């Protein structure tokens, strides 16, 4: 998906084109980091950098319902053929205000604050996209350019402290011209060719190798994902499915835009199942069809993430047809509307005004949050439900307008399908288009998806690693003008990046932001501020807490120093330790902590005889014939929790270091009870956690579409099998100026291909 109208391959036309953090926001003692635990599914969402503009209602990161998500993709990052990264909107990424008083501007910095407050959330960058995939072919084909690209991506995710990289190459071996009427910045894919298939694998493998190596150095685990087309034909031409899925952690299947105004007959753009009444049903343009195709290629189900749409697509004038209960569905379309350049189109009016070069083609595109407005301005627009496809649509018998979309009912059905078939989760385009419910957060579909897969409880938290900065601190006792300590903090980091992308993100990463200091209180001593330079000084939970957010030390850039004084109620000697924490907003969660000073008053070590706290909220988060997934809340300890002992039916079966375990040694139809104990390095063991029970289901076949035979998988790698139902399809007559070359296919008379548009 991309700003403006985005094209993706899918329905029939006679042409093929391609497509360590702490939870301590409140003043107090330094806190333990949240331990990592794997969620059974993924709720993945795109956030476009244009979301902050007027066109999207100034939707800022702070209003993302992050507590409902596991992954958030920053979209999109561009690059050139030499592998150098390029912002699509530099100001939006790193400098402009984004609806909150923050230490530094831009979306990328705001995402740090968002994730700190929501440890269940992973953030990542999506590379390419529909209009910015033009340089993939040349870059990936050249060893030096590909290596440069990988180096730059690794630096970017390190500086922005991201958790994953998403490659959105649309699409390998799918040449097309840029659709400049719809998006003047659309690069197209003019250099795409057969070599892309192998070079795509090389690129992913190089990224995988680099991410794993950097993760080992930084003590963290990076994920690698890809965005893939729903069209089986497009995948067969440019994507070695089996090899790609061996490399990546998960694949985001773009099972939306599978029908749209480029078609001469209506259909569902994001159906769960194929409806046999659809003349294109044999092509598997549904979640079920795509899933079966991938499984036939040996893909692990847990790596398949299927898509939902937070927007509509629509046709302007559609015949009612003879099915009174489902009027307009799978019916022919008249070309009665016009694009911004005056060319004719099947598409219904968009929510946004037509502007050549910035949304210049009509396609019936409305945000999900605006559907009530769409109904109000379209006489007779009525909602219908296709119980076979498990998909809603809107049709007006008065005007002939037809719109296809997702709603709460359809995304809930998709979430159930994910669970029933052991898939990896769901991905949605895009957050700004979702509908707000009770707050400014746009969350109606997001919440339905989350609750459908995970239930109503909180999502599992992750370890949020932060790299310590090179810092120096000098503490000098003074006795003139009272007694106390003069403290000088020096940021010893050095910046070296010069590129337009890496320079600002490196500077942000190496700058101390809204610092807060924690100093253990000595017996009988009280520290207070001498003047405004010390900020706000309080005593909390055995610590003197110095909040410098309101002082001149709001930002301490690389190479800078800051000096302030604290008055002491007793004769000063030295401080025990000083711990530095940072924030992106004054009221936000801390972005990690690090000890920057250890004085002569450091406390002596003591013998550890205290047991860790009891693991709490033990729960079964997934039960399948091949395993039981357990998660629990991390224990606390006066020193550190070393690990956990897992017990089944009273017997120890495993020792793990993180609060999650998958029991794969199970038998179909049996029941098992589980408890967990925590232990520390001194050997102290906690009491038993709460007990949970799991009933193992009897093996069953994958779920099938109701009221419909399974859709056959297209296996011909040259041309999709031509359905007899296509012989009477209406011609689209599409004259949209996007460089489509129809003549060869028309002369051949036998090839049937796909084209898709996506916003």
UniProtKB/TrEMBL annotation:
Start and end residues of each Gram-positive cocci surface proteins LPxTG domain: 729-759
Region (Disordered): 176-197, 323-356, 700-730
Annotated ranges, domain Fibronectin type-III: 614-699
Pfam families reported for this sequence: fn3 (PF00041), Glyco_hydro_18 (PF00704)
Record key words, sorted: Carbohydrate metabolism, Cell wall, Chitin degradation, Membrane, Peptidoglycan-anchor, Polysaccharide degradation, Secreted, Signal, Transmembrane, Transmembrane helix
Protein EC: 3.2.1.14
Reactions the enzyme catalyzes: Random endo-hydrolysis of N-acetyl-beta-D-glucosaminide (1->4)-beta-linkages in chitin and chitodextrins
Listed Basic and acidic residues bias regions: 176-187
Localization (cell): Secreted, Cell wall
Organism domain of life: Bacteria
Domain GH18: 41-456
Name by which UniProt lists this protein: chitinase
């Amino acid at each position: 998906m991309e700003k403006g109208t985005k094209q993706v391959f899918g329905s029939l036309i006679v042409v093929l084109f391609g497509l360590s953090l702490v939870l301590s926001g409140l003043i107090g003692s330094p806190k333990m980091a949240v331990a990592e635990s794997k969620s059974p599914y993924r709720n993945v969402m795109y956030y476009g950098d244009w979301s902050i503009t007027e066109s999207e209602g100034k939707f800022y990161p702070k209003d993302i319902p992050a507590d409902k998500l596991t992954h958030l993709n920053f979209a999109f990052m561009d690059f050139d053929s030499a592998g150098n990264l390029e912002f699509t909107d530099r100001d939006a990424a790193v400098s402009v205000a984004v609806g909150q008083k923050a230490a530094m501007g831009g979306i990328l910095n705001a995402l740090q604050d968002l994730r700190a407050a929501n440890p269940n959330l992973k953030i990542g960058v999506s590379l390419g996209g529909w209009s910015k995939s033009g340089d993939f072919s040349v870059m990936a084909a050249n060893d030096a350019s590909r290596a440069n690209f990988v180096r730059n991506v690794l630096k970017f995710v390190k500086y922005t402290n991201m958790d994953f990289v998403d490659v959105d190459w649309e699409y390998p071996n799918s040449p097309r011209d840029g659709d400049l009427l719809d998006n003047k910045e659309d690069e197209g894919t003019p250099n795409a060719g057969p070599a892309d298939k192998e070079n795509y694998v090389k690129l992913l493998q190089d990224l995988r190798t680099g991410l794993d190596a950097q993760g080992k150095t930084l003590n963290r685990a990076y994920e690698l994902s890809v965005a893939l087309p729903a069209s089986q034909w497009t995948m067969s031409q440019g994507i070695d499915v089996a090899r790609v899925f061996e490399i990546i952690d998960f694949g985001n299947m773009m099972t939306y835009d599978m029908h749209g105004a480029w078609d001469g007959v209506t259909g569902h753009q994001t159906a769960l199942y194929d409806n046999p009444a659809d003349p294109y049903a044999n092509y598997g343009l549904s979640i079920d069809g795509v899933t079966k195709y991938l499984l036939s290629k040996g893909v692990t189900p847990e790596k398949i993430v299927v898509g939902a749409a937070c927007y509509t697509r629509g046709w302007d004038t559609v015949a009612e047809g003879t099915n009174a209960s489902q009027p307009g569905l799978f019916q022919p379309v008249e070309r009665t509307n016009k694009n911004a350049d005056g060319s004719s189109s099947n598409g219904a009016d968009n929510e946004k005004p037509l502007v050549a070069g910035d949304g210049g083609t009509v396609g019936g595109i409305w945000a999900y949050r605006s559907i009530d407005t769409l109904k109000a301005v379209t006489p007779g627009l009525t909602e219908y439900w296709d119980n076979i496809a498990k998909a809603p649509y809107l049709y007006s018998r008065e005007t002939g307008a037809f719109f296809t979309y997702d709603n709460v009912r359809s995304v809930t059905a998709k979430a159930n399908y994910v669970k029933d078939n052991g898939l990896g989760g769901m991905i949605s385009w895009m957050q700004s288009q979702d509908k707000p419910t009770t707050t400014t957060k746009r969350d109606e579909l997001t919440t339905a998806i989350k609750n459908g897969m995970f239930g109503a409880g909180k999502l599992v938290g992750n370890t949020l690693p932060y790299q310590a900065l090179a810092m120096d601190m000098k503490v000098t006792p003074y006795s003139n003008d009272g007694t106390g300590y003069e403290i000088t903090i020096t940021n010893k980091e050095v910046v070296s990046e010069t590129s337009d992308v890496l320079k600002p993100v490196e500077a942000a990463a190496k700058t101390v932001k809204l610092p807060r200091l924690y100093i253990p209180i000595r017996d009988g001593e009280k520290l207070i501020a001498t003047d405004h330079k010390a900020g706000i000084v309080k005593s909390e939970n055995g610590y003197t807490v110095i909040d410098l957010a309101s002082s001149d030390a709001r930002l301490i850039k690389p190479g800078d120093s800051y000096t302030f004084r604290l008055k002491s109620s007793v004769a000063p000697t030295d401080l025990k330790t000083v711990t530095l924490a940072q924030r992106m907003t004054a009221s936000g969660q801390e972005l990690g902590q690090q000890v920057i000073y250890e004085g002569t008053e450091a406390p002596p070590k003591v013998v550890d005889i205290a047991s860790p706290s009891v693991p709490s909220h033990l729960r079964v988060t997934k039960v399948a014939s091949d395993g039981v997934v357990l998660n629990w809340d991390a224990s606390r300890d006066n020193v550190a929790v070393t690990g956990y002992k897992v017990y089944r039916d009273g017997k120890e079966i495993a020792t793990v270091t993180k609060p999650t375990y998958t029991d794969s040694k199970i038998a179909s139809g049996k029941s098992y009870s589980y408890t967990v104990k925590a232990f520390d390095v001194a050997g102290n063991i906690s009491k038993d956690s709460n007990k949970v029970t799991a009933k193992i289901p009897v093996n069953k076949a994958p779920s099938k579409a109701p009221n419909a035979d399974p859709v056959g998988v297209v296996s011909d790698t040259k041309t999709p099998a031509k359905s007899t139902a296509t012989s009477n399809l209406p011609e689209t007559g599409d004259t949209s100026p996007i460089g489509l070359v129809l003549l060869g296919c028309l002369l051949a008379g036998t090839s049937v291909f796909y084209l898709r548009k996506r916003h």
